[in-house]
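cron nightly-structures :: item 1 of 1
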Amino acid sequence: MATLEIDCPVCAEVLELSDADRADLAVGDVIVCDSCSAEMEVTRNGPGEEFELELLGILTVCPACGEEFEVTEDLLAAAPTVESADGSVVSVVGCPHCRARIELEFDDA
């Protein structure tokens, strides 16, 4: 049984999909990365390597209130970027539950 390996666009974790897994997936289905909780929509599921995903959003947990929320492209586009204490550039987003300001850092990978 063949296994298709796909790199998560957020954390670069390798997602392994067997032929059986792919048979159960249709265009429009959503896959969630076990490592970072990024949500990806299946946009193509053809034979062999014909498989594509589109990043929908990233789930994160607020360190202040413990509630989970989705970090969308719109949320990131509206978020200011600042230099954190360690010198890295981070996006500052607001928790939709408690309004805490959270610094998020993303790898370019």
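cron nightly-structures :: done
Strands lie at 3-7, 14-18, 30-32, 38-45, 51-61, 68-71, 81-83, 89-94, 101-104.
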